[in-house]
Specification:
Elements: H1 77-89, E1 127-128, E2 135-137, H2 140-145, H3 147-167, H4 193-199, H5 208-228, H6 244-257, E3 278-283, H7 293-302, E4 308-313, E5 339-341, E6 348-353, H8 357-362, E7 374-378, H9 389-392, H10 395-402, E8 406-410, H11 413-427, E9 431-439, E10 447-449, E11 457-459, E12 463-469, E13 473-478, E14 481-486
Parallel strand pairs: 3-4, 3-7, 4-6, 7-8
Antiparallel strand pairs: 1-2, 5-6, 8-12, 9-12, 10-11, 13-14
Helix pairs in contact: 5-7
């Protein structure tokens, strides 16, 4: 999402952000197969896709009263190129075709395809459903034959269609006008999106489509803050999902994130030593690295007494951003070519590394690690996905060595359970579960489409869980007495 979407409008009056009174949106689809690498349109380059057919006239500007358009006939050239990309790469899910790959989950349409010699060869999608406007089948006959199955996600696909056109319409996006810091006495309520937006004094969001658009961006910083904050909705109480080991790790971080007042002032008598910034390492960064920086600063407003240093690490962390920040030359002073941004906020700095984390770890680029100041975050890493698990094989043991908490998000319950099982199989019993897997209260309310498989719809940061390297409590006895030491 480009930062140009942020509207410069005057704040509206404060009203309740409730969505309970809104008519229900399209039903959520059944959990589909999860994907490890961001295969959605946010990270795919369409420059190689064939252009649309321009023989038919294209409608004029997109209006709010007419957001639905078939992808191939969209007024937006980007969406028409996206339709061409889908038709070029996605395969028909009808059961009469032979499978094109191994199924990745029980709900994967590939698991229902025929393997008999008489089965039809795989075919790319060509037919656009008239109800959702997205290419889903190779022909109208297969679409009609599989119509009941398609109905499970048709409403959600239509919602995706309209949301994509809404972003390219001419309306004013007041939901992207974010508030600055507020008084510390005004506590943030993290029960759900409604209470968070209201207590953070966002502009009133009274439309479900606007709510989906704003949560698609805010889900990244707010997900991190909702777990680390002292008013977190995740606790050790029954159903709170936070484990005893998780309480230990979160208490250490919260001790740093919520320090007592020091009496610092602007004069000489008010000089006080400043603690180092809290470091958040985001590994495998992709779409989150291109977020507008005023989105990330919302995290610092949740913790007004500390500073943050966010490290975006991954080979795709600067994807499609070369024109914005050309990669610097690697020098002895900057051996990994880090791109550092420190002028957008006084309380936050962002450094981007186009490198694998295990390379930086072996070079000891970030030592020493401190559980009171450091935290790792993995957004949709696909730890257990066959296509990406090998890339994490050397990284996960290194994360356990730091003894710092690791927060992980997933597209679905199946995606998270697969990641947890892979971590357990990889490191054995050297892992402590900090946060039990479950639905993220601050997941994206907007559904995303996988352009390589239109049957696969997912929600950003749908679930969240956490782990840490196991710590052993040992008792040491000597002449001077005894005590418990955590190793």
């Amino acid at each position: 999402m480009s930062s140009s979407l942020v509207a410069t409008i005057q704040p509206q009056g404060r009203r309740w952000h409730s969505i309970a009174s809104k008519p229900p949106g399209p039903a959520a689809p059944k959990p589909s197969r999860s994907i490890s690498k961001r295969e959605s349109s946010t990270t795919i380059n369409f420059s190689s896709a064939p252009g649309p057919n321009t023989s038919n006239p294209i409608p004029g500007p997109i209006r709010q009263d007419n957001l639905f358009h078939p992808f191939s006939q969209s007024p937006s050239p980007e969406i028409r190129r996206r339709a061409a990309f889908i038709k070029q790469h996605a395969y028909c899910p009808h059961s009469s075709h032979r499978p094109t790959r191994a199924p990745s989950s029980p709900n994967d349409p590939e698991s229902h395809k025929s393997t008999t010699p008489s089965a039809q060869p795989p075919a790319h999608v060509k037919y656009e459903c008239p109800d959702c406007g997205i290419p889903t089948y190779c022909c109208e006959e297969h679409w009609m034959d599989d119509y009941e199955s398609h109905l499970e996600i048709c409403d959600t696909l239509r919602q995706i269609n309209e949301d994509d056109h809404d972003l390219r319409s001419s309306r004013s996006f007041g939901e992207f006008d974010y508030p600055a810091g507020q008084m510390e006495e005004l506590l943030v309520n993290m029960t759900n999106w409604d209470t968070f937006l209201y207590t953070r004094e966002f502009n009133a969001v009274n439309d479900m489509r606007a709510m989906r658009q704003v949560t698609r961006l805010l889900t990244y910083p707010v997900t991190v803050g909702s777990v680390l904050h002292e008013l977190s909705p995740y606790s050790v109480r029954s159903g709170g999902r936070l484990t005893n080991e998780g309480l230990k790790s979160m208490s250490a971080l919260r001790y740093t994130l919520h320090p007592p007042r020091t009496g610092a002032g602007s004069d000489i008598k008010g000089l006080r030593p400043s603690p180092p910034p809290v470091r958040i390492f985001i590994l495998g960064a992709r779409a989150e690295s291109s977020l507008p920086r005023n989105v990330w600063t919302q995290l610092s407003y949740m913790f007004p007494r500390v500073t943050f240093h966010i490290h975006l690490i991954g080979p795709e962390s600067m994807l499609n951003r070369d024109s914005e920040y050309p990669l610097p030359e690697r020098t002895p002073a900057n051996p990994f070519g880090a791109v550092t941004e420190d002028r957008f906020s006084h309380d936050m700095k962002i450094s981007t590394y186009v490198e694998y984390y295990h390379t930086l770890h072996e070079a000891q680029a970030f030592v020493p690690y401190d559980p009171y100041f450091d935290c790792f975050v993995l957004f949709h890493p696909g730890l257990g996905h066959p296509a990406s698990s090998a890339e994490w094989a050397s990284t996960v043991p290194q994360l356990l060595e730091t003894k710092c908490p690791v927060l992980v998000t997933g597209y679905s319950e199946w995606d998270m359970q697969r990641d947890i099982q892979w971590v357990r199989d990889t490191v054995g019993g050297e892992m402590d579960l900090l946060l039990e897997p479950g639905e993220n209260r601050f997941r994206s309310l907007r559904w995303d489409l996988n352009d390589l498989d239109p049957q696969d719809v997912s929600s950003g940061n749908w679930g969240v869980w956490g782990f840490r390297g196991k710590r052993y409590e040992t008792t040491r006895k000597d002449e001077g007495g005894g005590g418990t030491v955590a190793l």
